[in-house]
Amino acid sequence: MSMPLLLACLLLAACAHRPAASLQELPPLRLSPASLGQTISVQQRLHFSFGAQQRELDALLEVDGHEVRLLVLALGQSGVRLRWDGRELQQQRAPWLPPAVRGERVLDDLQFVRWPAEAIRAALPEGWQLQQSPGVRTLLHGGTAWLVATELSPQRVRLENLAEGYRLEIESADGETQ
User: Fold this and answer.
1) Which residues pair with 144 in a beta bridge?
2) What backbone phi and psi angles, to 5 degrees, belong to 36?
3) Which pairs from 13-20 meet CB under 8 Å and 24+ separation?
4) Residues 69, 120: Cα–Cα separation, whole Å
5) Closest residue by Cα to residue 102 from 15, 11, 24, 21
6) How many C-beta atoms surround the C-beta of residue 111 within 10 A?
7) d(CA 137, CA 74)
8) Which of 44, 46, 42 is nearest to 57 (CA)?
9) Domain range annotation of the chain
């Protein structure tokens, strides 16, 4: 195994750590691409934090009325390619990618941060609520917050997954088209 590939494996393994048992199973969103209501094409830097561990990945995101496409890169190598057409999630995963990196969770995090609150609320099962105030979006169950997205600036959002114990900061490059 080459050194860049080995480093990428270690990076993603550290980023993908998932507790053996989540504190709370988060509901899947699986929102249609059209329900976003806009077209997006953006390059992003992803900053993952798991306890004291921190890692960075790059991502390319495109959304139109028909499909969500996401490419996640580690050290310049493709780790995950996702395509979501509103019915089927297609994933292409690098052989070195740890099984804990789940395309379904990546899609749900993306949709929680970017999709309109009304679309998210319509997809939530009974017992779940979405609260939104200026710059903050919170997913609650039984009065407890399990997922929180905070807008830090127009180009930067922090997502805290309290159910699975990680934090993700998404920094969009200038030139985002909507």
Assistant:
1) 141
2) -65, -35
3) 13/98, 14/50, 14/53, 14/55, 15/48, 15/50, 15/53, 15/55, 15/57, 15/101, 16/97, 16/98, 16/100, 16/101, 17/50, 17/53, 17/100, 17/166, 18/100, 18/164, 19/164, 19/165
4) 19
5) 15
6) 23
7) 28
8) 46
9) 3-14+27-125
Determine the 3-state secondary structure of 74 from DSSP. Answer: strand
pLDDT by residue for the chain (178 residues), tens only, comes to 443 333 343 344 444 444 445 678 999 999 999 999 999 999 999 998 887 878 888 999 999 999 999 998 887 888 889 999 999 999 998 887 666 677 888 899 999 999 999 999 999 999 999 999 999 999 999 999 999 999 999 999 999 999 999 999 999 986 554 4
Query: What integer pLDDT is reported at residue 57 of this predicted model?
Result: 86
Instruction: Enumerate residues 6+ apart whose C-beta is below 8 A from 75.
Output: 4, 7, 8, 11
Give the three-class secondary structure for 88: coil
Structure tokens at 117: 């609150």
User: Residue 92 carries which DSSP code?
Assistant: E
| DSSP labels, 26-48 | PPP----GGGG-S-EEEEEEEEE
